[in-house]
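Hey, does this match?
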Amino acid sequence: MKDGCPHCLTAKAFLDAHAPVYVEYNVSTSARAERLLVTLVGRPEVPVLISGYHAVIGFDPGRWSEALEHGRQIDGFDPYHMPAEAGRDPHDDE
């Protein structure tokens, strides 16, 4: 988020309605937040939603809804867990 950004206010209202648990970073008040933003998405543009493995730059309700749904789908997913159909995990001692 950025102070005075009307798109950020709209995005925040959207998140309040659709994802009541989120972390907000304000690039107006934190140089660290701006560095993090550039590191994650490659440019200092707001608003940005990062959900799951997706980053959406700019507020678009449809794309933000899709990203939030993706985040919900992978919530709790262990990236190191091998699915049973992949066969025996060679690193599993059991």
Observations:
- The beta strands are 48-51, 54-57.
- The chain has a mean pLDDT of 86.
